[in-house]
Design a protein that fits this description.
Length: 217
């Protein structure tokens, strides 16, 4: 059972849910704040803060109801509404040198892997619940294994800000439809342009291992 120990993040700003209109006029994906308009969100910064900033902006439309975003390592127990989304992401192998030196005895590779690759199938899973005017959106980001050094650990994805906004817009729209009866807008499927050198490798994909890597997206 997942135990939520993170603080509650209450959205700020005026509500966008008029009583006589059940459609949800969400903010545009093109409205990314200037301080988030960077090429990619790297692991050297506090990525969770960026996720929460965008989440609070999106979910402020549900005020006075309170919604919070919680990162989890597995699906929460109980009854949750599930939504899986995709994005273009970047990976970089950070296999520790001590482990890698052992591999070097059997493979002709450089002393540091540092292999990077792009995937058009970066996966994120959302689980949503709403009760007593309070909602929770639990999420999990899935990784991929490096196919250069054959490391067994899953590298975390580095997300582009516009991809983060896109998937949070999609889950916000889904919450509005499921829990507030709003019209269901089309899912945003657009991604940053890119042409990965290799096809998606399901053997190296954590989401595929967990059965959430659907090829339909």
């Amino acid at each position: 059972m997942v135990v939520y120990s993170t603080p509650v993040f209450t959205p700020v700003g005026p509500t966008l849910l008029p009583s006589n209109n059940r459609c949800l006029p969400l903010c545009s994906i093109a409205t990314t704040p200037a301080f988030l308009a960077v090429p990619i969100i790297k692991r050297t910064c506090n990525v969770s803060v960026v996720w929460h900033l965008i989440f609070m902006k999106m979910f402020s439309c549900f005020l006075p109801h309170s919604w919070r975003l919680v990162a989890v390592s597995s699906k929460p127990s109980g009854r949750w509404h599930t939504f899986v989304d995709s994005a273009k992401v970047r990976f970089a192998c950070e296999l520790s040198i001590s482990i890698y030196l052992l591999i070097l005895k059997f493979m002709h590779l450089d002393a540091a892997c540092g292999h990077g690759w792009t995937s058009m199938k970066g996966r994120i899973a959302f689980w949503c619940a709403f009760s007593n005017n309070t909602g929770v959106v639990a999420y999990r980001l899935y990784g991929q294994q490096c196919d250069n050094c054959q490391g067994e650990s899953y590298e975390p994805a580095m997300w582009y800000p516009e991809e983060m906004e896109k998937v949070l817009w999609n889950i916000c729209s889904r919450v509005a439809h499921v829990f507030y009866g709003c019209a269901r807008p089309p899912i945003q499927l657009n991604r940053r342009p890119g042409k990965p050198k290799n096809p998606h490798n399901s053997e190296k994909c954590q989401a595929c291992k967990d059965g959430v890597c659907a090829e339909r997206r």
